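Sequence in, structure out. Go.
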Amino acid sequence: MTTTTLTGSCLCGNVRYQASGCFNHFFLCHCQRCQKGSGSAHAANLFAGDGELQWLSGADQVRVFRLAETRHMRSFCRECGSALPFVQTEDNLLVLPAGSLDTPPPRSPEAHLFVASRAPWDSALPALPTFPGLPGA
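Output:
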């Protein structure tokens, strides 16, 4: 896989970034930590070993949380709370939340991880009706 440069931002627009690397993995993680951190059924992250992260604006708005005595981390905008990328220094691994991207990701998700911890309401999601916007709008 080749090196790709991606751009992204937070919901409020205060933080913008550019990330470059060989994004060789895209996982949907269902562990309880990712559920808590994302507020959803799973986290959707791309991974690049030796990736580079550059804050284009709002670097002072970025906060990093690391769960004590674990490798679990998350980065977010202190204004709007949006998930943002971070570098896990122990592994020199760039972790990029797919939902923060403003450019299309270079690959599709390849696997669901920690499905033993999957939220009990997650298994029925594919059978739900879909709408292009709000129902009845």
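Check: The chain has a mean pLDDT of 93. The radius of gyration is 16 Å.
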